[in-house]
Amino acid sequence: MKKKKGVLFILVFAALAAAVFAAAELVKRMPSLKKADFFAYYGLEPSRAYIILDGRAVKDGEPPLFRGGELYLPSDFIKEYFDEYIFAEPDYNLLTVTTAGSVRKFSAGGPEGVINENGVMYVPESLAESLYPLRARYAGGAGAGGLVVADTLTEPQNRAVIMRKQVNLRAEPSEKSPIIQKLSQNEEVRVYSSGKYLRIRTEQGILGYVTAASAEARPGEPPVKPVSDAVPFKALDGKAVMLWDQVTTAAANSAPDRKVKPAPVNVLSPTWFSFAESMDGGITSLADRGYVENAHSQSALVWALVSDNFDSAVGREILTDPAKRGKAVDALLNLCAEYGLDGINIDFEQIKEDTAPAYIEFLRELAPPLHKAGKSLSVDMFVPKFTKYYNRAAVGETADFICVMAYDEFWGPASGAGPVASAPFVREGVEQTLEEVPAEKVILGIPFYSRLWRELPDGTVEVAGAYGMETAAAIPAKNGARTFYYDDEGTNYAEYVKNENGRDATYKIWIEDERTLAVKLGVYKENGLAGVSFWKRGLEDPEVWALIGREAGRQ
């Protein structure tokens, strides 16, 4: 009898266990009824306004504003998602929008409706939508909070309609995920991804997931194709063989040695322009129409160089001031027209990291009117190793050419003695530039000069002189020294010792000649660059022009 009772107990226990397990499985499979607050789930503050853009909540930056029934978008939002070059200058109540073909300036309080709120520039929705492939609207909310729904119109605008009653909008693509909101039948939603679950946004800006079976796709708007307003323009036929021409006085323009250019050269860049001492954006000029006409008669273009006076004050005082920046742009355009120039060559060598954005803005304000006038814009830049913060990608997008000044590897006591431009230095400079700028916009800058270094026993290092090719080549022999060529460095090297006032001074020189030039021209050819440029006229050995004509493709 006891045995039967034991068996019965076991059977009952097993049945109960099975029932408990079945109930647990049923609970496990049941959809979650837990609710979640949208703002809390996404880490948003209910009292703050947010933009919901293309299925994501934009948390960073300033919030949108609502004034008098108008929606205003912060310029940093536009900069992050639609226009990296929009340029806000709240200290001047100014917002500048540049494209490949235009420059538009909007003043706070002006007719376009731009406002300056506590040092932040805001763009009215209507203006933003006229400038960018953007649609935005206020979706609702109380007080300072609320959501703005925004769409990038270059993306597909997929939509769907809820087909069932009381569909759960869940936080994640799972029935176990908490419910953010109940959706009504016939409610239209924006769809961002498909599958078993659709990731959607409601008309009120709430994000989440619904099952695909609960919604039906509706035709969406096709993506808007971006339209460029770039002016059709060709800066140069073929490859560039450019020669910088240092002109220090107006009279020097008509010097006899400037009457005939070297045969391979098709671009001359005279150093004519600098900024006036008043630092108001005015330009000091050494330009000469006869020089330009003479160059044109020999089938050479003239890209006049404008320097920053080798003074960081230009970037700090002129480029960061919109009025002065504009004055400089207008002055350069007028000089181009007055002298019949073919382009402007920007040689700003003292731009500091904090003024680099204003430098880019200057170029972007200068390029469109230059191109409309049929003029080119080229920019001289050190190798990236020295100036990574210059934003070469932005410069390359704006300018027609970037001339990489692949020299001054060793330049003074702070750098120590060394070559002006060793082969590894040149290759690295070109390779790093090509990471940001396409080869068809890169011109390789090559030196025609060498530095003579003087080292003393106490460790003092100084530059004893800088010399052109012929003068530098003669220095070793004049001092009883031999010159050696080093393949790995692509350099000629010589050194000698002179006793000076009872102490030995060691002189070192890395000489540029036809052989080192050929190595650099090889880098140009290997990388398919847009051309070569040389600093400077008058420092070359005349014999090298035959080599340049062969290697640069211009006989």
Tell me the count of domains: 2
CATH superfamily of the largest domain: Glycosidases
Strand order of the largest sheet: 19-20-23-24-25-26-27-33
State the CATH topology of the largest domain.
TIM Barrel
3D structure, described in words:
The protein is an alpha/beta fold. The chain has two domains: 38-221, SH3 type barrels (Roll), CATH 2.30.30.40; 240-447 and 513-551, Glycosidases (TIM Barrel, Alpha-Beta Barrel), CATH 3.20.20.80. Helices cover 26% and strands 32% of the residues. The strands form eight sheets. It has an eight-stranded parallel barrel with strand order 19-20-23-24-25-26-27-33, surrounded by five helices. Strands 17-16-15-12-18 form a five-stranded antiparallel beta sheet, with no helix packed on it. Strand 1 (49-53) and strand 2 form a beta hairpin.
